[in-house]
Each structure stands twice: as C-alpha cells, then as structure tokens.
Design a protein that fits this description.
Strand order of the largest sheet: 1-5-4-3-2
Helix content: 40-55%
Distance between the termini: 81 Å
Largest sheet: 5 strands, mixed
Radius of gyration: 38 Å
Structural class: alpha/beta
Shape: rod-shaped
Length: 483
C-alpha cells in the first residue's frame, strides 16, 4: 500500500508536525520534490510531496503560491523552518487551510534527504509488493486456465484476486458469473454492452467501477469486472492477465469441444454402420464411458442455434452428437427424461425416441427415431415415440369404426379388471409394449417394481388368453391401444 501523508507524519524520527489539512492526510505520496521555485507547476506531475524552505516566499506572496500548488495537484507541502523562516508564514497556513492543502512543518534538524529516503523506501516497497502480487496472480490464473478449472475457474479466481465480481458474456447473455449472485448485474450492463464493439470501456454502476473488455469479437464475448473501488496498478495488470489467459482458455475449450463433437459424430457413423463393437472400443480408448445397452435412441430436429444449445446442455450428461441436420442421443436409464427436459428448456426442438434396442440394432433404432422426429416436427410436438408413430401409421389404413370395435373387444377384459380398482393393466401393457418388453425400463417409467410389472403382464395374458411373447399378438395389442 502506498505511503500516505499520515503515515509519513507518524514517522517519529522525522519529527514532522501537521499544521493544517488533516482531512487530506490519507493522500498517497507519489514522490518527493524539493524546490525553491515560486511556480514549480511545469516540473510536477501531481501527487508529490513538495519540500521548500520558502526562500523566495513572503506573507504577501504565499497565498498565490499555495493556490498554484493545488492547481498542480500536489499531495502536500513540507515547509522547512529555521532557515529562511523561523516559522511557516501565517498567510500560507491560512490559505492552505482554506483550500484543503496539507502542510507539514519540517524542523531544522530534519534534512530533506531523510524525508526523500523515507518516501523512496516506501515507494520501492510498494512497487515490489505490486510486482509480487501481479506475479503471483499471473501464476494462479495460468494454473487455473490450464488445469481443470477452465474458463469458469479463471473467472472465480479473478473475482477473488480483485475482491469484486466477474461476468462472462456471450453477446448480451451471461455465460458465467463469479460469484453466482453477480448474474443480477447482467441486465444492468446490457445497454453498455450494446455500445461496446471492441476494446475496453470503464464506467460507474451502483457504486462499483466496472471494466468491460472484449475477448472475442467474432463470438461477441465480453468480460465484465466490477469492484467497490477503482482498480490500482496491480489490479489493472491482473485483469489484463485474466483477459489473455481467458481468451486462450476459451479458444482451447472451443477447439476441444469441436474435436469431441467430431469424434462423437464418427462414433455415431460407426454405430449406424453396424460397427458397434469398434465404436464402443474407440469410446473406451478415448476416455469415454460407454452407456450400457440396451439403449433408448433419440433424434431431435430444429434450428441450428437450438441444436447447438442442446449439444452444449447434454455435454457430459449423455452421449450426444451431430448427425446432418439433427442431434442424436442415446443411453440407458433416464436418458429420455434428461434429453427431453433439456430440449423443452431450449425450445424450438422436435424429437423422436425409439427403443430400448441392443447395440447391434442401433441403426434400426436410429431410423425409427428419425421417422418419429419428423412426425413430431409435423405435429409441432416436443417428443413422439417410434412405437406411437408406427401405431398411428397402421391405424390410418383401418376404418376408425372397425378399429374402435376391434380395440373394444380385445381390451375389454383388461378395462373391466381396471374398473374394479385391482390394477392398472391397460397403462402397464402400453408402457411395457412401448419399451419393447424391457422390464426394468418400463417399470421405472411406471414407478413400480419390475416384479409388480411382471405380475401385471402375467395377469394380462391370463385375461386375454394370448401369448405376449408372440410379435403378432404384441402388434395387435399395440394397434388396439392406439385406437
């Protein structure tokens, strides 16, 4: 921290006495400049402690002298007594008090060089501390960027280093925030973001100094840094370092994401071509965890931006890849719910789902899911199952009256049973057929134990007197359930 006038006055060996300007003693001292000139403005930069013995000053010239020093922006005035003047001129003290200029009386026993040395040591220590702080911050930011933290980690580290908040924008949308509560500033910054095209912009917002810095003009990425007080030299260097490492981290992330997507698209092509064993082996070799078969296969259609957001949302959650103008995802368990919820949040997407299918039947499942996705797009629905779409296609060939009579007769025993409140046979049969007789998946979708589902399907067979292992019987029941 820079040496202030108060800190210098507290240095007892110097024997300085504050005559006036107590309210300005918190001013930092940039340097010390001894001079006997009555107008030293041309030789000053501002922030100096000016030292003089008043050799050329008198009671009548002192007031104008003080005002010139204030105009030059000096931090304070040190007046040496016992040489040209036995005491500091009264008019000088009065004028300094009027304009708020701190005046320190320097005893004859205190050489000006002693004050210069004290300030010089403090300035050197402050510069060293600043250099050390910048160096450590650069190391921390770099380690974070190249480690597992990535861009989000860099933002969190930067917020701590500057004791403020940090936002990363993609256009006018907040992509990352540190801390999380800083997202509330996103809306307030929108107008300033629209004004910024490239470079840096600094302004005040709700008592904070905010620095906006463009990172990537093509992607319209902007870094926003807010602090309670203006950034000092170290703070500005730290932000500049963060801008550099963040730009590199974002570019690295983008390149890695593109490589991952290319790999997944290639694996998808292997699966579609019947090379399931090879695809899974490649996935394991590249550090991926192959989902356990059988798989539900999902295909989503929609605008390019919506498909890109879906891929981003599913990254790390499920296996998803581009396939032409669609997004394909597959997996076991709750993959359907995960993908459908993400698509619903994003909006503008229409999907189809098939399966579960074994790995070797992936191509067939993909084709069924694509057909269902096109049907969902045509009907403006978020998701349609392949089983539902197939049933609709067959029903379109049957007279509705005939189809309803057929369904009523076939399913009557099940509906009578359900009306007694002794079970949900119709719903259980529909779900079981929809999931190709997969007990665990169907039971999970129904929210019951697989043994409960097995008992219900056994009851269905008893009531209908038909073998549900027969593909023909299953087809008839599915058509009846759609009628």
């Amino acid at each position: 921290m820079a040496l202030t006038l108060a800190g210098l006055a507290a240095d007892r060996p110097l024997g300085l006495r504050v005559l006036t300007g107590e309210d300005g003693l918190d001013r930092p001292i940039g340097w010390v400049h001894p001079t006997e000139l009555t107008d030293p403005q041309a030789f000053l930069e501002g922030g100096e402690l000016l030292l003089t013995t008043g050799l050329a000053l008198a009671e009548d010239t002192a007031p104008a002298y003080v005002r010139r020093l204030v105009a030059a922006g000096v931090a304070g005035l040190g007046f040496g007594v016992g040489l040209s003047h036995e005491s500091v001129p009264r008019s000088l003290v009065a004028t300094a008090a009027e304009v708020g200029l701190p005046v320190l009386e320097v005893a004859r026993e205190t050489p000006f060089i002693a004050i210069t040395r004290a300030v010089s040591r403090a300035v050197a220590a402050d510069e060293y501390a600043t250099t050390v702080r910048i160096g450590r911050a650069q190391q921390e930011l770099t380690r974070t960027a190249v480690g597992k933290g990535g861009p989000a980690g860099v933002l969190r580290k930067l917020a701590k280093l500057v004791d403020g908040w940090v936002l990363l924008f993609e256009r006018t949308t907040v992509a990352e925030a540190a801390p999380a509560g800083a997202r509330e500033y996103g809306t307030l910054l929108r107008e300033e973001l629209e004004r910024l095209r490239t470079g840096t912009r600094v302004f005040a917002l709700d008592g904070h100094e905010v620095v906006l810095q463009t990172l990537d003009t093509a992607a319209r990425r902007v870094l926003a840094v807010g602090t309670g007080t203006p950034l000092d030299t170290a703070g500005r260097h730290i932000v500049n370092t963060a801008v550099s490492v963040l730009s590199l981290a974002l570019e690295q992330d983008r390149a890695q994401a593109a490589a991952r997507q290319a790999l997944r698209t290639g694996l998808l092509e292997l699966l579609s071509g019947g090379q399931a064993e090879l695809a899974l082996r490649v996935l394991e070799t590249t550090g991926g965890e192959p989902p356990r078969a059988p798989w539900s296969v999902l295909v989503f259609l929609g605008p390019p931006a919506a498909r890109r957001k879906l891929l981003e949302a599913l990254d790390g959650e499920v296996f998803a890849a581009r396939s032409g103008s669609s997004v394909v995802a597959f997996g076991g368990g709750a993959v359907v719910d995960t993908v459908a919820e993400a698509a619903l949040r994003i909006g503008g997407l229409h999907g189809g789902v098939a399966g579960p299918v074994p790995a070797e039947d992936f191509a067939a499942g993909l084709e069924q899911a694509e057909l269902a996705a096109r049907a969902a797009e045509a009907e403006d629905k978020i998701l349609i199952s392949a089983a539902e779409h197939t049933g609709r296609g067959l029903l379109s060939l049957i007279d509705p009256t005939v189809a309803q009579a057929f369904a009523h007769g076939l399913l009557a025993p099940l509906r009578r049973h359900d009306e007694t409140g002794r079970g949900d046979l119709v719903a259980s049969l529909r779900c079981w057929l929809e999931h190709h007789g997969h007990w665990d998946v169907a039971a999970a979708r129904l929210g019951v134990h697989r043994h409960t589902l097995r008992n219900r399907i056994t009851k269905v067979q008893e009531l209908l007197g038909r073998d549900l292992d027969s593909p023909g019987v299953r087809a008839e029941l599915w058509v009846a359930l759609q009628a």
